[in-house]
Amino acid sequence: MKQKPNQLKFLKYQKKRNIGNSYKRNYLIFGNYGLKSIENGFLNFKQIESARKSLIHNFNNNNLILIRIFPDKVLTKKPLEVRMGKGKGAIHDWVSVIKPGIIIFEIKSLNFEIVKKAFFSASQKLSIKTEICYE
């Protein structure tokens, strides 16, 4: 998985407010089980990648695992003990904006018990609350 996008119109965006529910990406398309967020927040690349590795660890190669989010927003941060002013800070992290209802991972599998165990271990790696959804 790529860590950041190749090109953006502007590199540093304003942060905005992360409120409200998601009306896009809130239903299953490719798989029959999904990990859905139930609170808002940000997920960075390291969290998404560690959850993906824990999912792969629980499944064999014939199951389809899809990631439906991508870290495309930049968070900036100024160094410690720097005075106010002098412009926006340097790039600190690339994150994905998560709203309640967004499907984070999808799995095409038949055994619900293995899926339940895999999603529990993946949700432990994320900083938001999640739940399992299915068709």
From TrEMBL:
Which Pfam families does its entry note? Ribosomal_L16
What GO biological process terms does the UniProt entry carry, in alphabetical order? translation
Q: How does it assemble?
A: Part of the 50S ribosomal subunit.
One GO cellular component term of this record is: ribonucleoprotein complex
Q: Which UniProt keywords apply?
A: Ribonucleoprotein, Ribosomal protein, RNA-binding, rRNA-binding, tRNA-binding
- UniProt cross-references to InterPro entries, sorted A to Z: Ribosomal_uL16, Ribosomal_uL16_bact-type, Ribosomal_uL16_CS, Ribosomal_uL16_dom, Ribosomal_uL16_sf
Membrane-crossing ranges are none
Tell me where on the tree of life, at the top rank, the source sits: Bacteria
What this chain does, per the entry, is described as: Binds 23S rRNA and is also seen to make contacts with the A and possibly P site tRNAs.
Name the family the entry cites: Belongs to the universal ribosomal protein uL16 family.
Q: Which PROSITE patterns match?
A: RIBOSOMAL_L16_2
User: Which Gene Ontology molecular-function terms are recorded?
Assistant: rRNA binding; structural constituent of ribosome; tRNA binding
What protein name applies here? Answer: 50S ribosomal protein L16
